[in-house]
Amino acid sequence: MITKRPVVAAGFLLPSIVIYGLLLLYPLFSGLWLSLTDSRGGPRSDFVGAEQYVRMASDSEVWRALGVTLAYALIVVVLQNLLGLLFARALYHRPRIRKVVSVLIMLPTLVAPVMASLIFSAIYAPDGALNSLLRALGLDAFTRIWLGDPQTALWAIALVNIWMFAGYSAAIFLAGYLALPGDVLEAADLDGASGWRRFRAIEWPLLAPALTVNITLALIGSLKVFEFPLIMTNGGPAGATTTLTMLIYRKVFGNAGEFAYGITIAVLLLVVVVVCSTAVTAILRRREEGMGI
Prior knowledge:
By secondary structure, this protein is mainly alpha-helical. The protein has one domain: MetI-like fold (Orthogonal Bundle), CATH 1.10.3720.10. It is 73% helix and 0% strand. The chain has helices spanning 6-34, 51-57, 60-92, 95-106, 113-124, 129-136, 153-178, 182-190, 195-206, 208-223, 227-232, 244-254, 259-290.
């Protein structure tokens, strides 16, 4: 029963509003204010207006980090959802092993990002498991210094992210598969639709809500990536894996006098996350509406 007394309703909402304000709104507006000052992280600061933003606009280091961040997000979003979809489809059509395999593919999500970074750093080492396997197979020409080569470092880190969360994407897609209307699938069977034709015409359109959720979550998570590049490469080699979060960390905690500038870059990251996630979600929602879902 919904109460008609506004005071009582406000009383129930007040604790949530206070917590929301303290944990989200206050840090948000404090950060916006600090980006307009010359704060060094201490109690004293002077208002400098848009000076930090003007500096950021002409800082090639920031725009390179933004490019690295967007490239990383693109790799993760595409490959993670592709693998998740393949896993989900395979499990949907194999109900006997579905429960066991579903648990197994979710296990990597239980590994802490720091631990995963250390494990894969050892695997990617010049004398690590990956190069040793390639040599054992006679594929010496494919061995690399995976984390030391600017052409492979970002991909190597992205694959760790994908390894950890592809099972999560698969679980969401599998939930979408299990919610497919039985009458539609029966009609498809009667019409002889199978394989690629059935997937393209029936399964893929009906999985639109699951796709929207997966892409949005993967996009937000990958844009904010921090632990993997920090531990595996520390942003190297030659800045090839320096993301915006890495740059923020260096400015705020590593360089004296650049605290406010680091906060300004954090504001940029916030804008990028909000704009990208909102735009992608809006496009995917419109796609759902176009399909009548």
